[in-house]
Design brief:
By secondary structure, this protein is an alpha/beta fold. It has one domain: Metal-dependent hydrolases (TIM Barrel, Alpha-Beta Barrel), CATH 3.20.20.140. The chain is built from nine helices and eight strands. Strands 1-2-3-4-5-6-7-8 form an eight-stranded parallel sheet. Helix 8 packs across helix 9. The radius of gyration is 17 Å and the shape is globular. About 50% of the residues are buried.
Length: about 260
C-alpha cells in the first residue's frame, strides 16, 4: 500500500468531490496520506480532515510565501498543535524566491524559528525550496536540523545537493515531476537515492504526473510516481510501495 506523504486535500480544488477523490485513492493502493497545512486557513481545514478520517495525518507549519504574516502567536499555536496526536511533522517551511510575497530576511527568520521549534518538540520538518537551494541547505546546517531530520519535499535538485540533505538526516520525496519527460534531475536523483531514505508524494492538487500533467492532481496519482520510480530503479512496484510506506511510518513515528 502507498503513503502519499504530501497532499493538500484541504485545498479548495477538492471542495466539490472530496469523497470521490478519497475513493479513487483507495482504489489505487493509497492507504495513508499526510495533509499539509501551511497557514491559518489551511491548517484549520487540515485539522478537520484529520479528525474525520483515520488514515489522514497532519503536517503543520508556515509557508515561506506567507512568512510576512507570521507572528509570535502563530509560533505558539504551532507549538500547541505539535502535541496533537495526528501531527507527524512541522512544515511545509523553507524559502521561496519565485513568488515575491515575503522579503528574504523575513523568510529566513520564520524558517529558523520553525526549525528551532521542531528541535524543541522533537518533530521532523518538511522543506519547501523554490529557487533557493543553497540558502535552504545552509540554514538547515546552521540550525542543526539533523537533530530532527525530515523531508525534502518534491525534490528536483542534483545528486550533490541530495547527498548534503542525506547527511542532514533528511529523506528525499519525489512527486509528479519524476514522471515528466524533460525533468532529468528528479530521475537521476531517484536512481541514486538509497532505498531507505526515499518517499513519494503528490503535492495534489499541483504537479500532476504524466499522463495527467496540466490537470488537477490527486492522491490516486501517487501510484504513477511509485511505478515510475520502480522503472528507474529496476525494482518491482510492490517493493517501492513497501519501502516508501515503511520509511514514512518510521519517520513520522506511526505504528
Amino acid at each position: 500500500m502507498l503513503f502519499d506523504t504530501h497532499v493538500h486535500l484541504n485545498d479548495e480544488a477538492f471542495e466539490e468531490d472530496l469523497e470521490a477523490v478519497i475513493t479513487r485513492a483507495k482504489e489505487n493502493d493509497v492507504s495513508r496520506m499526510a495533509v499539509v497545512g501551511f497557514n491559518k486557513k489551511t491548517i484549520d481545514r487540515a485539522l478537520e480532515l484529520a479528525e474525520q478520517y483515520s488514515f489522514i495525518y497532519l503536517i503543520v507549519g508556515w509557508h515561506p510565501t506567507d512568512a510576512i504574516d507570521f507572528t509570535d502567536a502563530d509560533l505558539e499555536w504551532l507549538r500547541q498543535l505539535s502535541e496533537h496526536p495526528k501531527v507527524v511533522a512541522l512544515g511545509e517551511m523553507g524559502l521561496d524566491y519565485h513568488w515575491d510575497t515575503s522579503p528574504k530576511e523575513v523568510q529566513f527568520e520564520v524558517f529558523r524559528k520553525q526549525i528551532r521549534l521542531a528541535r524543541e518538540v522533537k518533530l521532523p520538518i518538511v522543506i519547501h525550496n523554490r529557487e533557493a537551494t543553497e540558502d535552504v541547505v545552509r540554514i538547515l546546517e546552521e540550525e542543526h536540523a539533523e537533530e530532527v531530520g525530515g523531508i525534502m519535499h518534491c525534490f528536483g535538485e542534483t545528486v550533490e545537493v541530495m547527498e548534503r540533505c542525506l547527511a542532514l538526516n533528511f529523506h528525499i520525496s519525489f512527486g509528479g515531476t519524476v514522471t515528466f519527460k524533460n525533468a532529468k534531475l528528479p530521475k537521476i536523483a531517484a536512481e541514486a537515492i538509497p532505498i531507505d531514505r526515499m518517499l513519494i508524494e503528490t503535492d495534489a492538487p499541483y504537479l500532476a504526473p504524466h499522463p495527467n500533467r496540466g490537470k488537477r492532481n490527486e492522491p490516486a496519482y501517487v501510484k504513477l510516481v511509485a511505478e515510475k520510480i520502480a522503472e528507474l530503479k529496476e525494482m518491482k512496484y510492490e517493493e517501492i510501495a513497501r519501502y516508501t510506506m515503511d520509511n514514512a511510518n518510521k519517520l513520522f513515528g506511526i505504528q
